[in-house]
Amino acid sequence: MATGRFFIEVGLPKQKSHGDGVLFPMVLTPLSKTKLNVEKKLCDFLLAIKAEKPLLESLVKKRGVILFRGFPVITLSDFNDVVEAFDFPPKLYIGGRGLRSNVIGRIMTVDSRPPEIKIPFHHEMSYLSDFPSKLFFFCEEEPGSGGETPIVLSHIVYEKMKEKHPEFVAKLEEHGLTYTKLMSDEDHPSLYAGRGWKSTYMTNDKNAAEERAEKQGTKLEWIGNTAKSITGPMPAIRFDKENQRKTWFNSMVVGYNDPRDPQHCDVNISTKLANGEPLSDSVMQDCLRIMEEECVAIPWKKGDVMLVNNLMVLHSRRPLVTPPRQILVSLCK
């Protein structure tokens, strides 16, 4: 199916349809097969993005994810040009838990944790009041095997969880969540939430860190040079106005130390209901299962660019089995 003047929608194995005949994620490839040099093809792609931005933006609001495949995005500079062509305002990574570094322009590394360790499903920075609305991912080096970035529609998770645990979901909607994290003054790359408070708030000054945290709805308590951040109550269920439905907008499973998965165990982070109740193992196990059953994990191809609506889609990372793998990210307001 042609989409606009420059793109065509295609189907891929592993896409899903939730009874409406619409495939998730949306996959777009070039409509024109004209043989041009790489530099000219990239220029045409950038011009196409600018020309069709209203259409592309409306599609990602409705479909949740657009995977651009088969376009001549080769270098990090190319990827930065793609992000710039969309012209979404940049979102600084102040307050984010993961340890990332800026690479070029608006492009950052995705996560410092060893690639063989999985990252649970989450909405980017959903534990803060100031979170990005859109994410771009780019595959600079495709994995040999493994290392996918699974994605799942958040309203599907909400509907399944409400059906399975209506009382818990009612409490979640009433009270929200409280997120807690212990941060030393140094970074610890091996941990999921290994970013120290100096990196998190981009300052060496405790008072400045407190001020920046407060703007995001976070309170800092000091234990020597260690900061305990307490954020909440934060909504765990949000309403998607564009599509008129509720979404499972939280990072609940990230703060859950799954006894079945000792690799994902970080005692420095925790999540609980904002009324003080802990998250039960049975609820969390069902949530993890539902996310895995409903997700889509299309293997990365070199040059892929994936635009994610962070308001309606959760993402994660599967363990890398065979290197290499190089995925980069850019955050937008």
UniProtKB/TrEMBL annotation:
Keyword tags: Oxidoreductase
Family annotation (Pfam families): TauD
Domain TauD/TfdA-like, chain residue ranges per copy: 48-328
GO molecular function: oxidoreductase activity
Signal peptide positions on this chain: none
UniProt keyword Oxidoreductase present: yes
UniProt keyword Oxidoreductase, yes or no: yes
Matches recorded under InterPro entries: AlphaKG_dependent_hydroxylases, TauD-like_sf, TauD/TfdA-like
SUPFAM superfamilies listed in its UniProt record: Clavaminate synthase-like
Alphabetized PANTHER family for the sequence: GAMMA-BUTYROBETAINE HYDROXYLASE-RELATED, TAUD_TFDA-LIKE DOMAIN-CONTAINING PROTEIN-RELATED
Protein name: TauD/TfdA-like domain-containing protein
Species of the source: Lactuca sativa
Lineage: Eukaryota, Viridiplantae, Streptophyta, Embryophyta, Tracheophyta
